Amino acid sequence: MTEPASETGGARRGRPGHDQETVLRRAVELFNRRGYDGTSMGDLARELGFTKSAIYHHVPSKSHLLEQALDEALGGLTAVIAAAEQNSSVGAYERLRQVIHQSVEVLVAHQPAVTLLLRVRGNSDVELAALRRRRELDARLAALVRAAIAEGSLRDDVAPDLVSRLLFGMVNSLVEWYRPGGPVDAQAVSDAITTIAFDGLNAE
Question: Which part of the chain engages DNA, per the record (predicted)?
Answer without folding.
Answer: 40-59
